[in-house]
Amino acid sequence: xxxxxxxxxxxxxxxxxxxxxxxxxFVTVAISYLHLDVxxxxxxxxxxxxxxGGLVASYFMHLxxxxxxxxxxxxxxxxxxxxxxxxxxxxxxxxxxNNNVP
Amino acid sequence: xxxxxTVHTRPDTGLYNAKLGIWLFLxxxxxxxxxxxxxxxxLRVGALEWPHGSAILNxxxxxxxxxxxxxxxITMVMSWASLKMKAFSKYRMYMGLTFLLGIGFLIxxxxxxxxxxxxxxxxxxxxxxxxxFTLTGLHGLHVIGGMIVNGYLWGPGSRxxxxxxxxxxxxxxxxxxxxxxxxxxxxxxxxxxYLL
Lengths: 102, 196
Known about the structure:
The structure holds two protein chains of two kinds. By secondary structure, chain A is mainly α. Chain A is built from four helices and no strands. Chain A is about 80% helix and about 0% strand. The radius of gyration of chain B is 19 Å and the shape is elongated.
């Protein structure tokens, strides 16, 4: 178990992460007012969201210092998640769909 | 029979059981929301035209809701940290704040929903609103689920602090992991639905 001194150090980190998350939220909204083209807007928005998500997972969920079995489970999850996200690409390259064959 | 490894770590995993359990559950949740996100992409790519979220959704309200949920994440982690520092009264304050912020999030969301319903905008109207209500509705249900657990740990469940403080601290950590995940999902939902 972490001792009280360690936890106090963690608390300072949590506050820093909180401030960073607030700042990045406003960055996300501000970028949306730049009216970038769709591709650039998607890329920038997802990069900022990934940074925010990474901060939450790393510090609030303590993933930065977790046990190997959790990393292993999450790597497996990430592989399946990537496959899920790739489904639209598979669909786009499907000759049956593209040729409108019933 | 006593439930094993609620406080002490298992020698093979290095974790107490509930922690491994919640991570495996969250892995399944990643796939649940992942399936809906990929559905969103398929629908959007296949649509002849797709509205810009900010043109038909309330971005300022959603921004406030993002801040509310992020704030609830830090109050949640502070409630766990307070227990680690043996400060039970601070725990109650932070967990209470987390619960209230959850209510705040749902109130703002219901204001958004009400505005849409007033304008007769329902999931059946078009594909955008179908996926918008599905994603935000499922996320809202997760917020409600988290609030039920947090409310229990703030109220009757907190009696465990007197009998088994370490186990109670672990329960709060597990509830926190779930709550942060719900925040994490919103971090992606917000730009995808409202800003793109």
